[in-house]
Amino acid sequence: MTKTIQLPLTAESVKQLQAGDVVLLTGRLLTARDAAHKRLISELEAGLQLPIDLKDETIFYVGPAPAKAGRPIGPAGPTTSGRMDPFTLPLLKLGVRGLIGKGYRSDRVKLALIEHQAVYFGAVGGAAALLARQITSAEVVAYADLGTEAIRRLEVEDFPVLVVNDCHGGDAYSAGREEFQKDS
Amino acid sequence: MRQLSVKKIEAAISNLIEESAYKLPADYLEAMRAAEEREASKTGRIMLTTLLDNASYAESEQIPTCQDTGMAIVMLEIGQDVHLIDGNLTDAIHAGVRAGYADLRKSVVSDPLERQNTADNSPAIIHTEIVPGDKVTITLAMKGFGAELMSRMQMFPANAGVERVKEFVIETIELAGPNACPPVIVGVGLGSSFDGVGLLAKKALMRPLGQPSPKPHLAQLEQELLNAINDLGIGPQGFGGTVTALAVHIESYATHIAALPVAVNLNCSAPRRAKIEL
After folding, report:
1. Most buried pick, A19, A22, A73, B47, via CB within 10 A?
2. Taking CB atoms and an 8 Å limit, are B179 and A104 in contact across chains?
3. Distances in whole angstroms, Cα of residue A180 to Cα of each of B230, B234, B243, B244
4. Using a CB-CB distance cutoff of 8 angstroms, which residues of chain A are in contact with residue B233?
């Protein structure tokens, strides 16, 4: 069953989500990948004010391709989330509710999702052209010097994702694999 | 002696990049359609259908299939009877890469520690080989690094045997899981030296799908590994399923009496590659 969820997420909307749910997201989110995470955490550690408010935000790990004329953004699919694991706990503490990427998360991140009532979604890696079609606007809001790695504000409409790790400890990757693994 | 302008090589590389960014290889799409038929997981089939739809949409709209249009890996087989004229070959390759990536994402940093983006996706990674004849063959990969990052190599001792090789390949796929955007293509290098085995694995990824190794013992190993990998249950995008890899390709070379080098290079759901003879 497909669920339609509005962004920004709330503690209530996160609680409804179960690992394996197919979800269409509509609303606003932020993009950040390796370089932006590194800078956000350095600024936090230096006691600086962050350029963006992260409360209830959803962060999409993406470095989009340049936009073709007349389009808000170029192809924009998820990058590997695990690289952001070492930077994720402080962001969850600041109120981040949703993460979108692809691939495994660390045990620490999975536990932090439960603690902070947040959710990790997987988008289809390699389906960047189709995903960009669901993005209606894009604007750089911080770290413009990072190019594709800048932080962007996106508006999305029916953006398709699948719940990988929910706030109840569910994990779609391990559940999926258990179902199809053959003993050899 | 035949003369060939490096300007032609530059233009060819630029064209190959532009075309490959928007259009995935026909043999790959055929393998994906077959995978869509046999995948046992419903979610897995949805993932495969989505990736196929994405490929059609990207081609029809002339936009990249994946935002990560990769780093250019350029392999040149240069006939020994060719005289390259009109400038420096290396400069021409980098110029071709800059031109080809003009409208694509810039994913290259100049130094692995300082990490300043070069802003034009150059330089390319270049491998050259001198071969008989008077032609130049260019093989291009636009290598996405989600799968590259999950690739591994190991210098095993001489008597490690085929079972250790199998374990290492399978362990690599397990560690990669969803990170490498499965279904993956698995390129395995066996033999050579530390520097050579990685290139063997990369060359294995450049072989079109549906072509087993011409060496019977390696063709058999490719099939055994493919079956074992698909029994892992990782499935399309890692959500569980029966198609974790589309193919295993092995390239081998002689090695030293002390060693059994193994490299496993992975390709993702956007395996952009192209080849041209000049």
Report:
1. B47
2. yes
3. 9, 8, 10, 11
4. 176-182
Q: Report chain B residues whose CB lies below 8 A from the CB of A182.
A: 231, 233
Paired tokens of A78: 């998820």
Please list the helix, strand and coil fractions of chain B in percent, rounded to the nearest 5, in that order.
45, 25, 30
* Tens of pLDDT, residues A58-95: 999 999 999 999 999 999 999 999 999 999 999 999 99
**Interface touch A66/B50, C-beta < 8 Å:** no
* Residue A35 to residue B115, Cβ atoms within 8 A: yes
Q: How far, in Å, are A82, A145, B100 from residue A87 at the CA level?
A: 10, 20, 34
Tokens 């072509």 belong to residue? B211
Q: Which residue ranges make up each domain of chain A?
A: 2-180
Q: Is residue B167 helix, strand or coil?
A: helix
Give the confidence band of A183 by pLDDT, cuts at 50, 70, 90. confident
Across the interface, whether the CB atoms of B233 and A132 are under 8 A apart is answered no
Predicted confidence (pLDDT) at residue B98 exceeds the cutoff of 70 = yes
Nearest CB to A65: which of B69, B235, B237? B69
Decide if A147 touches B, using CB distance below 8 A. yes
Average pLDDT, chain A: 96
A81: left (phi over 0), alpha (psi -120 to 50) or beta: alpha
Among all residues of chain A, which has the CA nearest to that of B225? Answer: A184
| Complex ipTM more than 0.90, yes or no | yes
CB within 8 Å: A148 and B107: yes
The model's pLDDT over B187-198, given as tens digits with 9 standing for 90+, comes to 999 999 999 999
Question: What local confidence, expressed as pLDDT, does residue A184 receive?
Answer: 59
Fold that domain A2-180 belongs to in CATH: fumarase (3.20.130)
Residues of chain B neighbouring A149 (CB-CB closer than 8 A): 117
